[in-house]
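Q: Convert this sequence to C-alpha coordinates.
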Amino acid sequence: MTFEQIVFYFFAAVLVFAASMVITIRNPVKAAMFLVLAFFSAAGLWMLLEAEFLAIVLVLVYVGAVMVLFLFVVMMLDINLVRLREGFGEYLPFGGLVAVLMVAEMGVILAVGFGSDRLPAPHPANYSNTRELGNLLYTVYAYPFEIAAVILLAAIVAAIALTLRRRPETKYQNPAKQVQVQRGERVRLVRMAAEKKN
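A:
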Protein backbone atom coordinates (compact mmCIF):
# COMPACT_ATOMS: atom_id res chain seq x y z
CA MET A 1 0.00 0.00 0.00
CA THR A 2 1.42 3.36 -1.05
CA PHE A 3 1.50 6.55 1.03
CA GLU A 4 -1.16 8.17 -1.18
CA GLN A 5 -3.54 5.27 -0.54
CA ILE A 6 -2.97 5.51 3.21
CA VAL A 7 -3.72 9.26 3.13
CA PHE A 8 -6.79 8.63 0.97
CA TYR A 9 -8.22 6.01 3.33
CA PHE A 10 -7.50 8.23 6.33
CA PHE A 11 -9.34 11.24 4.85
CA ALA A 12 -12.16 9.00 3.59
CA ALA A 13 -12.64 7.42 7.03
CA VAL A 14 -12.69 10.82 8.72
CA LEU A 15 -15.15 12.11 6.11
CA VAL A 16 -17.54 9.18 6.57
CA PHE A 17 -17.34 9.47 10.37
CA ALA A 18 -17.94 13.24 10.33
CA ALA A 19 -20.84 12.93 7.88
CA SER A 20 -22.49 10.24 10.01
CA MET A 21 -22.10 12.42 13.11
CA VAL A 22 -23.70 15.39 11.30
CA ILE A 23 -26.92 13.47 10.77
CA THR A 24 -27.02 11.58 14.07
CA ILE A 25 -25.96 14.12 16.72
CA ARG A 26 -28.75 16.13 18.32
CA ASN A 27 -26.89 19.33 19.16
CA PRO A 28 -26.97 21.64 16.09
CA VAL A 29 -23.73 23.43 17.02
CA LYS A 30 -21.84 20.14 17.33
CA ALA A 31 -23.39 18.98 14.05
CA ALA A 32 -22.09 22.14 12.37
CA MET A 33 -18.60 21.51 13.77
CA PHE A 34 -18.64 17.95 12.41
CA LEU A 35 -19.74 19.38 9.06
CA VAL A 36 -16.66 21.64 9.15
CA LEU A 37 -14.54 18.53 9.76
CA ALA A 38 -16.25 16.83 6.81
CA PHE A 39 -15.46 19.82 4.58
CA PHE A 40 -11.80 19.73 5.60
CA SER A 41 -11.62 16.00 4.86
CA ALA A 42 -13.23 16.50 1.46
CA ALA A 43 -10.73 19.28 0.75
CA GLY A 44 -7.91 16.87 1.58
CA LEU A 45 -9.34 14.33 -0.88
CA TRP A 46 -9.54 17.00 -3.57
CA MET A 47 -5.90 17.85 -2.92
CA LEU A 48 -5.06 14.21 -3.62
CA LEU A 49 -6.98 14.48 -6.90
CA GLU A 50 -4.83 17.50 -7.86
CA ALA A 51 -7.81 19.85 -7.62
CA GLU A 52 -6.10 22.41 -5.41
CA PHE A 53 -8.33 25.30 -6.41
CA LEU A 54 -11.52 23.44 -5.51
CA ALA A 55 -10.01 22.37 -2.18
CA ILE A 56 -9.07 25.95 -1.27
CA VAL A 57 -12.47 27.26 -2.38
CA LEU A 58 -14.20 24.60 -0.29
CA VAL A 59 -12.25 25.63 2.80
CA LEU A 60 -12.55 29.39 2.23
CA VAL A 61 -16.17 29.57 1.10
CA TYR A 62 -17.90 26.78 2.98
CA VAL A 63 -15.85 26.61 6.16
CA GLY A 64 -14.90 30.27 6.31
CA ALA A 65 -18.20 31.84 5.31
CA VAL A 66 -21.19 29.51 5.12
CA MET A 67 -20.54 27.51 8.27
CA VAL A 68 -19.65 30.59 10.32
CA LEU A 69 -22.90 32.21 9.17
CA PHE A 70 -24.82 29.04 10.01
CA LEU A 71 -23.26 28.93 13.48
CA PHE A 72 -24.15 32.58 14.10
CA VAL A 73 -27.74 31.96 13.01
CA VAL A 74 -28.10 28.87 15.20
CA MET A 75 -26.59 30.57 18.24
CA MET A 76 -28.40 33.90 17.89
CA LEU A 77 -31.88 32.67 17.00
CA ASP A 78 -31.81 29.93 19.67
CA ILE A 79 -33.64 27.51 17.41
CA ASN A 80 -34.70 24.34 19.16
CA LEU A 81 -33.65 21.87 16.49
CA VAL A 82 -33.64 18.99 18.95
CA ARG A 83 -37.40 18.66 18.57
CA LEU A 84 -37.00 18.51 14.80
CA ARG A 85 -34.70 15.49 15.11
CA GLU A 86 -36.83 13.49 17.51
CA GLY A 87 -38.29 11.32 14.75
CA PHE A 88 -34.88 10.14 13.55
CA GLY A 89 -35.50 6.52 14.54
CA GLU A 90 -38.66 6.28 12.43
CA TYR A 91 -36.77 6.87 9.19
CA LEU A 92 -33.66 4.87 10.13
CA PRO A 93 -34.63 1.64 8.26
CA PHE A 94 -35.40 3.49 5.03
CA GLY A 95 -32.23 5.60 5.35
CA GLY A 96 -30.19 2.47 6.03
CA LEU A 97 -31.59 0.81 2.90
CA VAL A 98 -30.72 3.85 0.80
CA ALA A 99 -27.21 3.92 2.30
CA VAL A 100 -26.66 0.21 1.54
CA LEU A 101 -27.81 0.75 -2.06
CA MET A 102 -25.47 3.70 -2.48
CA VAL A 103 -22.52 1.75 -1.09
CA ALA A 104 -23.34 -1.17 -3.42
CA GLU A 105 -23.50 1.17 -6.44
CA MET A 106 -20.17 2.78 -5.52
CA GLY A 107 -18.62 -0.65 -5.07
CA VAL A 108 -19.80 -1.75 -8.51
CA ILE A 109 -18.44 1.45 -10.08
CA LEU A 110 -15.09 1.08 -8.34
CA ALA A 111 -14.78 -2.60 -9.20
CA VAL A 112 -15.89 -2.42 -12.84
CA GLY A 113 -15.41 1.16 -13.98
CA PHE A 114 -11.86 1.79 -12.86
CA GLY A 115 -8.66 -0.06 -13.45
CA SER A 116 -4.94 0.56 -13.48
CA ASP A 117 -5.00 1.06 -17.26
CA ARG A 118 -7.56 3.90 -16.95
CA LEU A 119 -5.51 6.12 -14.69
CA PRO A 120 -4.78 9.50 -16.29
CA ALA A 121 -1.26 10.45 -17.22
CA PRO A 122 0.48 12.76 -14.76
CA HIS A 123 0.25 16.44 -15.59
CA PRO A 124 3.29 18.47 -16.60
CA ALA A 125 4.93 20.78 -14.09
CA ASN A 126 3.39 23.97 -15.53
CA TYR A 127 -0.19 22.59 -15.52
CA SER A 128 -2.77 24.77 -13.76
CA ASN A 129 -6.13 23.25 -12.95
CA THR A 130 -7.42 26.73 -12.03
CA ARG A 131 -6.83 27.89 -15.61
CA GLU A 132 -8.48 24.75 -16.99
CA LEU A 133 -11.46 25.17 -14.68
CA GLY A 134 -11.84 28.83 -15.71
CA ASN A 135 -11.63 27.92 -19.39
CA LEU A 136 -14.38 25.33 -18.98
CA LEU A 137 -16.63 27.52 -16.82
CA TYR A 138 -16.49 30.59 -19.03
CA THR A 139 -16.48 28.89 -22.44
CA VAL A 140 -18.19 25.50 -22.53
CA TYR A 141 -20.38 25.92 -19.43
CA ALA A 142 -20.93 29.69 -19.55
CA TYR A 143 -24.73 29.55 -19.82
CA PRO A 144 -25.24 26.90 -17.09
CA PHE A 145 -22.89 28.91 -14.85
CA GLU A 146 -24.94 32.09 -15.35
CA ILE A 147 -28.23 30.22 -14.88
CA ALA A 148 -26.93 28.80 -11.59
CA ALA A 149 -25.99 32.32 -10.48
CA VAL A 150 -29.50 33.63 -11.28
CA ILE A 151 -31.09 30.69 -9.43
CA LEU A 152 -28.91 31.37 -6.38
CA LEU A 153 -29.85 35.07 -6.48
CA ALA A 154 -33.55 34.17 -6.66
CA ALA A 155 -33.09 31.78 -3.72
CA ILE A 156 -31.44 34.51 -1.64
CA VAL A 157 -34.27 36.97 -2.39
CA ALA A 158 -36.88 34.29 -1.62
CA ALA A 159 -35.22 33.38 1.68
CA ILE A 160 -35.15 37.03 2.73
CA ALA A 161 -38.79 37.51 1.72
CA LEU A 162 -39.91 34.38 3.59
CA THR A 163 -38.11 35.19 6.83
CA LEU A 164 -38.93 38.92 6.95
CA ARG A 165 -41.64 39.22 9.57
CA ARG A 166 -43.03 42.06 11.62
CA ARG A 167 -43.00 40.82 15.19
CA PRO A 168 -44.50 43.08 17.87
CA GLU A 169 -41.81 42.30 20.45
CA THR A 170 -38.94 43.45 18.24
CA LYS A 171 -37.91 47.06 17.79
CA TYR A 172 -37.11 48.34 14.35
CA GLN A 173 -36.56 51.67 12.65
CA ASN A 174 -38.70 53.04 9.83
CA PRO A 175 -36.31 54.89 7.49
CA ALA A 176 -39.17 56.79 5.78
CA LYS A 177 -40.25 58.34 9.09
CA GLN A 178 -36.65 59.09 10.03
CA VAL A 179 -36.14 61.08 6.83
CA GLN A 180 -39.37 63.09 7.25
CA VAL A 181 -38.65 64.23 10.80
CA GLN A 182 -38.30 67.98 11.48
CA ARG A 183 -35.77 69.77 13.67
CA GLY A 184 -38.38 70.72 16.22
CA GLU A 185 -39.28 67.08 16.78
CA ARG A 186 -35.70 66.09 17.56
CA VAL A 187 -34.19 69.02 19.41
CA ARG A 188 -35.76 70.85 22.36
CA LEU A 189 -34.10 74.08 23.43
CA VAL A 190 -34.34 74.82 27.14
CA ARG A 191 -33.70 78.34 28.41
CA MET A 192 -32.21 78.47 31.88
CA ALA A 193 -31.47 81.50 33.96
CA ALA A 194 -27.82 82.18 34.57
CA GLU A 195 -26.52 81.54 38.03
CA LYS A 196 -24.60 84.18 39.89
CA LYS A 197 -21.55 83.18 41.86
CA ASN A 198 -20.88 84.88 45.19
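The domain at 1-81 is CATH 1.20.120.1200 (Four Helix Bundle (Hemerythrin (Met), subunit A)).
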